[in-house]
Structure prediction request, 261 residues.
Amino acid sequence: MTDSRPIGVFDSGVGGLTVVHALRKRLPSESIVYLGDTARLPYGTKSHGTIERYTLQAGALLQRFDPKLLVIACNTASAHGLEALKRESPAPVIGVIEPGAALAALVPGPVGVLCTNATLQSGAYEKAIRQRNPGAEVHTLACPLLVPLAEEGWFDDPITVETIRRYVADLPPAVKTLVLGCTHYPVLKASLEKAHPGMAWIDSGEAAALAVEKLLTERNAKREGSRGEMKVLLTDPSSRLQEVGSRFLGEELGVVEVVDI
Prediction:
């Protein structure tokens, strides 16, 4: 028995397409409806109440497609809106913080987390990691300039390298593993590697894709057969969206539908 209903995925912008890329790689037969709230980007500078409201609105819109599962492909929305959406959604909901934290909890020695201001203020990563490893040494660092650099498409650029270098200089030298605690950050991997060669990286999006596969397997809800369809919804179509979005996704974005949320 298989479940052919789509997986609903949403983010504040196009950064969550890195999660979709991981899902498409791991679960190619699954159909995905992606919602990017590009009209209200970024979430990382907003209050808890606003982020929670945006998360519930995104979840409600995706319910129109009868999803079998919702994925919050945004660390900020996962930190501030996951529990509220779990209470409201008829479909199960997975965020990106818990799967990434589970991997971080296994790291020997101190671990760093790069994230938005709102994710840092929530304390969500420290809590999730220490629930699994009470003695863990966690250093969380807000890097607010990295999201606009990623949205601008400056994935491998000297300015991005220098920005990362300046941020990470605030972490103790003993930190040798960093969690990419924002789904925009994986596309900056080339700049991250140049700024800090030899650092180990935990991609919260890839961890979330593993969690999705596990849940669908447990529920006997995986779709089998041909490659799944991909539908992209955005609340505002920017002029560079096709180019940048395709680079986040790792394939052509295709037709984009503009929606009101």
